[in-house]
Specification:
globular; Nucleotidyltransferase, domain 5; 13 helices; five-stranded mixed sheet
Length: 329
Amino acid sequence: MNLVSTLGIDLAKNVFSVHGVNSNGAVVLRRTVPRAKLGELIAQLSPCLIGMEACSGAHEWARRFCGHGHTVKLMAAKFVMPYRKSGKNDGNDAEAICEAVSRPNMRFVPVKSEQQQSDLSLHRVRQGFVEERTATLNRVRGLLAEFGHVMPQGAVQVRRLVPALLERLPSRVARCAQDLLDHADRLADKALEYEREIRSEVRSNDLARAALKRQGIGPITASALVATVGNGHDFKNGRQFAAWLGLVPRQYSTGGKTRLGHITKRGDPYLRTLLVMGARAVLQRAAREDDPLSRWALALQQRRGYHRACVAVAAKNARVCWALLARGA
């Protein structure tokens, strides 16, 4: 086992497959180990390169393996797939990971620290509260529509119209509607509580405060940026960061003719959504501002339309934020 130079690990819940090769590419380790034994196996190996897919638990395992002196790199599962030579099983997946991690042009996912994952937990839970609140209010709308009361979309409209209808509904239906409204209010309060904690964390984070200097970047987006990419040193430049977020056009080019389609939508959808929402805010106030970004955004909107301008502003903000995080300017 001390001859292993590159190791691929196929992560799972309880049983893990490992595939190790030496410096000549010969297989020297191919084993299936339970979760309790994986840490012991890695601790026995001399420092080597370990590859894993970026999935549930990957960042925690990466931090543990780095503590034993190993170099750990995470990859998107779709980048590993072409290296699988035969049918899909755990052993073949581990072999494909071992092959993919040794490729010089492979793209890797930054390993998050425990603090970054803790900050992202606030974002994920808050987003879950917001989505559940929206679903609850839509459930109220659907329930009342069954009794002939059709209401417009929007949380404000539902909260304004439903109380006036409760006395005209059957008692059981009124009780159900009131319970759903109370549940939605509790979810809204919890989402607001998490948002306040995120804003408080931003005020004490130098990198997040640097990202706040850019128009279209609010506290939620700044916190998510820092929690996702840290100081941005895992990306060579802002263009690579924007491409990693999926804010660049998908190419269908052949025969010397370039065809650009819709954006790729790769990377973190939550962070990409926040950047696009911030870009919409920039466009909404651009007509009242006279700064370079607003003038550029308005001119682009006139040439290419509103939605393309939103994506372009989001991509520009992503590139500028990378420069602020990585270089401080």
